[in-house]
Amino acid sequence: MAKKTILITRKWPEAVEKRLSETYDATLNETDTPMTTEEIGAALNEYDAVCPTVSDKLPASIFSGNHRAQILGNFGVGFNHIDIEAAKAAGLTVTNTPHVLTDCTADTAITLMLMLARRAGEGERELRSGNWTGWRPTHMMGTRLRDKTLGIVGMGRIGIATAKRAQAAFGMKVVYYNLVDVPDAALEGIEATRLDTIEAVLEAADVVSLHVPGGGDNTHLMNAERLALIGPRGMLINTARGDVIDQEALIAALQSGKIAGAGLDVFEGEPKVPQALIEMENVVLLPHLGSATTETREDMGKMVADNLDAFFAGQDVPNPVT
User: Any idea where the D-isomer specific 2-hydroxyacid dehydrogenase NAD-binding domain is (predicted)?
Assistant: First the structure.
């Protein structure tokens, strides 16, 4: 029996590519060159499965029905780069890789908080440029996180993991907003207060960390009015999706001093990053590193493989996008 054909749209960890190549007739992207939307659309008619990532765009226009492809094995937990309804209407099963990114993404949120609070990026740039003149009592003073209030918008697995780290390491108070009730068992070990609105969280917090899905109603969730509520001493952290923040409004808020700073791992229109953000010293910028550890990326790839294996064996997929 001929092996099923699959397309991997980007370069994946070697261990994952090896596993997939043993089981399937796998086309790999050795050069890691991003594919165009048109190329991915064409691939739907050439392969039994297409495995995209967050860097790919799969709009409704490429799902015309009667595709050879039967499944999209998405490498990532987020799927706002795929028009899910159009894909399903065209008869495709869509899967993702939840849960395995939790710890690494929470670690990245804490990294951004520390870098921003202690001006670490700014300090490293000064030293590397040769402009550091030595220790002095008032040089590059930041702020400590201990006893500050962390506001979590989106208290899912990553939000909870971020809150646990912040409270255990720094003794931060935690307030949060979540659309649905969070089970008490999930909050075990955290002293956290649920507030009724996003606005209430923004007003109460010294540091706001975003952990909500992108797209839909969450597009530009953080608009000019909400950004202003964070206050001139407040900081904003985003390890979720770039489109959750109105980038132009954020730039204006930072430039006018309506908020003190921002730590961003994701951007609207990646990989483009506005020059205004790059030039600001009160902004920490990372190139979408949230899940970028060898262990996590391999786990993500293995989860895609598990989904494909189950699907082609006629079994329920472990991680369907619903």
Answer: 110-290
Report residues of the chain scoring pLDDT below 70. none
Active-site entry in 119, 241, 268, 297: 241
Instruction: Please confirm, yes or no, whether 99 is among the known catalytic residues.
Output: no
Task: Verify whether residue 144 is a known catalytic residue.
Answer: no
Q: Walk across the sheet containing 93-95 and list its strands.
A: 25-27, 5-8, 49-51, 71-73, 93-95
pLDDT in tens, 261-291: 999 999 999 999 999 999 999 999 999 999 9
What is 5-99+294-312's CATH number?
3.40.50.720
Dihedral-angle region of residue 229 (phi above 0 means left; psi in -120 to 50 means alpha; beta otherwise):
alpha
Where along the chain do its domains lie? 5-99+294-312, 102-285
pLDDT at residue 66, as a whole number: 83
CATH superfamily of 102-285: NAD(P)-binding Rossmann-like Domain (3.40.50.720)
Are the CB atoms for 321 and 95 separated by under 8 Å?
yes
Query: In whole angstroms, what is the distance from residue 10 CA to residue 227 CA?
Result: 35
DSSP state of 95: E
Active-site choice (39, 126, 248, 270): 270
Domains 5-99+294-312 and 102-285 share a fold: yes
CA 52, CA 168: separation in Å to the nearest integer? 37
Q: Are 114 and 121 in contact (CB under 8 A)?
A: no
State CA 246 to chain mean position distance.
Answer: 16
| Residue reference for tokens 């009160």 | 282
Give the β-pairing of 207-210 and 235-238: parallel
The amino acid that residue 152 corresponds to is I
Catalytic site residue 125? no
Using an 8 Å Cβ cutoff, are 10 and 304 in contact? no
pLDDT score recorded for residue 252: 98
Q: Per-residue DSSP letters for 249-299?
A: HHHHHHHHTSSSEEEES--TTTT---HHHHH-TTEEE-SS-TT-SHHHHHH
The one catalytic residue in 288, 295, 297, 298 is: 288
